[in-house]
Structures are given as structure tokens and as C-alpha cells.
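Here is a protein:
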Amino acid sequence: MERKPVGNHDVFFKKILEVEGHAEELVRSSLPPAILEELDLGTLKEEKGSFLG
């Protein structure tokens, strides 16, 4: 029996990442320190729309 997805992951991530600070925390917890040192996470800003095709 084939399993079908139980929801829309795009909606889930949009809801999670629309909360201020969540995107930065996701990046900080996912990347190694050497890469984080090269980033200015203070420049993160919300962009409306979708970049998924």
C-alpha cells in the first residue's frame, strides 16, 4: 500500500520560519563554526514569495 504525504511541507516551513529568529537559529544549528564565522546573520530579512518551482 502506497503512503501519501499527510500535509504540505512548504506550508509547515513557511509557518516555522515566519517567526522572527527561527531562520537564524536554524542556520546557526545547521552549519559548522568555520562557515558561520564567514556569515553576517544580522543581515537576514524576510522575503515574501516562494523560490520553489
Observations:
- Residues 9-17 form the longest helix (9 residues).
- The mean pLDDT is 84.
